[in-house]
């Protein structure tokens, strides 16, 4: 009898505890999703529907905001600019960082550890500190308002993270693999391109995701270096867009929704790269 | 280690060094130089510490600094929330992966998008207040971003809303990587949940917590431009003025890069101090890896 009693109370206690935990987490989930839900319902309302009923479900569901937001093709232009900037800078930074990481991970040279520590530390310096000289330098070089100027700056700013991440990953690849390639007469460059890079697939993808996200989400650098509307990336574009449609909230919200869809889709399918990548700087593995 | 010619490693390092020279070394040296000059166009006469004197005299700068400092209150709040959530998730409540993925969503959204969305939601007659009124909570339907006394707190709320996801995932990743027996040991000697949290789990997380605190402090002092720019542009008045926006405005709106550089130098020195514990933490974890 008594043992049955304690068992039951143990079970109900556990049940109660898990109920508390779920309540706690659900409150968190609601707080996270609420703004997203509001964005979603507002994006499908007419201006009139919105002013009459802000918190209700759209009635009827109105898709005209998509058209309004896309009018004039500027949305696609900003989007294209973001793709060029993120793609170009990540490509450049990955190439440069792979070469350097190879040296850090597999070669012996003076000041290796000091140099790596300095490069790693650069990750934390906020871009606003570098921006004034970069702007003046690019002005002198006639490279403000060009893709190339901005790509160079972005590539530079994300390189410390790329080097850090690739160095750590290259170190984990067993040396025997490298050794056997050496015996086959491979050069050091062959080893990097044919062995280390292919074996680092997931780490490289993770690094690319994080860097893309960084460049894609940047507002400050683009605001300064690419003031011309036809070169603006998406984030600057939507900031301008948001203030233009200040009075037409549904169109503004539709714009924000469309701007987030690519990243949300990527997250849905490549979640582990996002999660791994964004904690990579902090927790090994 | 590969046996290479003495010069080979440097050949591999050269492209990176050039890129970093352009993006970091040159700018960091230049701001010190610029901060001592009255810059017009690309250069100007040397004026010693005059720019710094101007900055320290400026009330707007004082406000900017004090706002950055007030926002630091977000750090302990984020630490507490993310530890609690991470620990609950670690205990493998049903569906913990789904919870984790959902709670991480804000962190992958772009800050400018979040800023524009919240600046709409938080209007006096915006969706949030309308919803509160519908639930009979009209009394707390405040002027979130229109009232200068409220705006900074609203911005802090938005920052917490997004950045806390990173803390959760970070702490959870750490918990999953430590030996489960260490944590289960607490269960055996009958410690309750809070005791286990305090005496077993938090000591295990100590180094990650330190890391997260430092990262968050740096974020709040120097990486929140996008929030401010999209939510309030530093307003109403200077109610949400911060150091980054101060630099931005002086350099690119008021055309006084000398003054802006002086503030950039100050901000750089502050981050430099904060970098030390991070580098130490990183090299610590590398040592662990080798052991």
What keywords describe this structure?
heterodimer, A: 285 residues, MetI-like fold, 79% helix, disordered N terminus, B: 291 residues, mainly alpha, 13 helices
Report the total helices of chain B.
Answer: 13
CATH topology of the largest domain in chain A: MetI-like fold
Q: Strand-residue fraction of chain B?
A: under 5%
Beta-strand share of residues of chain A: under 5%
Number of domains of chain A: 2
Number of strands of chain A: 0
Give the rounded overall mean pLDDT of chain A. Answer: 86
Count of helical segments of chain A?
Answer: 14
Task: Calculate the terminal CA-CA distance of chain B, rounded to whole Å.
Answer: 18 Å
Mean pLDDT of chain B: 88
Q: Considering the protein shown, what is the CATH homologous superfamily of the largest domain in chain A? A: MetI-like
- Supply the number of structural domains of chain B: 1
CATH domain class of the largest domain in chain A: Mainly Alpha
Order of helices and strands of chain B: HHHHHHHHHHHHH
Global shape of chain B:
flat
Helical percent range of chain A? over 70%
Give the termini distance of chain A in whole angstroms. 50 Å
CATH fold-level name of chain B: MetI-like fold
SSE sequence of chain A, one letter per element: HHHHHHHHHHHHHH
| Helix-and-strand structural type of chain B | mainly alpha
The overall strand count of chain B is: 0
């Amino acid at each position: 009898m008594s043992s049955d009693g304690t068992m039951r109370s143990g079970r109900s206690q556990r049940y109660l505890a898990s109920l508390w935990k779920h309540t706690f987490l659900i409150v968190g989930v609601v707080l996270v999703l609420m703004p997203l839900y509001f964005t979603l319902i507002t994006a499908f309302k007419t201006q009139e529907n919105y002013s009459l009923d802000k918190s209700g479900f759209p009635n009827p569901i109105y898709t005209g905001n998509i058209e309004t937001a896309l009018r004039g093709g500027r949305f696609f232009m900003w989007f294209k600019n973001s793709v060029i900037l993120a793609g170009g800078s990540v490509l450049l930074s990955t190439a440069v960082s792979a070469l350097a990481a190879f040296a850090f991970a597999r070669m012996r040279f003076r000041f290796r550890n000091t140099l790596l520590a300095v490069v790693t530390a650069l990750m934390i310096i906020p871009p606003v500190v570098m921006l004034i000289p970069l702007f003046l330098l690019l002005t002198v070089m006639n490279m403000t308002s060009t893709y190339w100027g901005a790509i160079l700056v972005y590539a530079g700013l994300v390189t410390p993270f790329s080097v850090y991440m690739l160095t750590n990953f290259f170190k984990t690849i067993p040396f025997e693999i490298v050794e056997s390639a050496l015996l086959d007469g491979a050069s050091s460059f062959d080893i990097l391109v044919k062995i280390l890079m292919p074996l680092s697939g997931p780490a490289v993808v993770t690094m690319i995701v994080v860097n893309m996200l960084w460049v894609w989400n940047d507002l400050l650098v683009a605001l300064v270096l690419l003031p011309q509307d036809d070169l603006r990336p998406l984030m600057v574009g939507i900031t301008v867009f948001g203030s233009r449609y200040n009075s037409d909230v549904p169109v503004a919200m539709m714009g924000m929704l469309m701007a987030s869809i690519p990243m949300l889709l990527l997250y849905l399918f490549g979640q582990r790269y996002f999660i791994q990548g964004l904690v990579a700087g902090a927790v090994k593995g | 280690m590969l046996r290479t010619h003495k010069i080979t490693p440097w050949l591999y390092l050269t492209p990176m060094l050039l890129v970093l020279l352009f993006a970091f070394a040159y700018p960091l040296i230049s701001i010190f130089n610029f901060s001592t000059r009255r810059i017009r166009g690309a250069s100007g006469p040397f004026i010693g510490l005059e720019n710094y004197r101007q900055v320290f005299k400026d009330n707007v700068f004082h406000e900017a600094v004090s706002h950055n400092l007030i926002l630091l209150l977000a750090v302990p709040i984020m630490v507490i929330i993310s530890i609690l959530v991470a620990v609950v998730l670690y205990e493998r409540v049903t569906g913990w992966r789904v919870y984790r993925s959902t709670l991480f969503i804000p962190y992958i959204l772009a800050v400018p998008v979040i800023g524009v969305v919240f600046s709409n939601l938080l209007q006096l007659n915006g969706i949030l207040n309308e919803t509160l009124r519908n639930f009979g909570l009209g009394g707390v339907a405040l002027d979130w971003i229109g009232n200068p006394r409220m705006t900074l707190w609203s911005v802090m709320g938005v920052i917490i809303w997004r950045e806390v996801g990173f803390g959760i995932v970070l702490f959870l990743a750490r918990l999953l990587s430590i030996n489960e027996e260490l944590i289960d040991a607490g269960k055996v000697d009958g410690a309750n949940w809070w005791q286990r949290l305090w005496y077993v789990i938090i000591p295990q997380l100590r180094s990650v917590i330190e890391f997260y605190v430092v990262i968050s402090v740096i974020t709040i002092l120097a990486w929140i431009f996008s929030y401010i720019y999209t939510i309030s542009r530093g307003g109403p008045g200077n109610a949400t003025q911060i150091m980054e926006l101060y630099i931005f405005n002086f350099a690119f709106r008021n055309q006084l890069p000398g003054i802006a550089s002086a503030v950039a130098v100050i901000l750089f020195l502050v981050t430099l101090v904060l970098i030390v514990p991070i580098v130490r933490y990183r090299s610590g974890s590398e040592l662990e890896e080798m052991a």
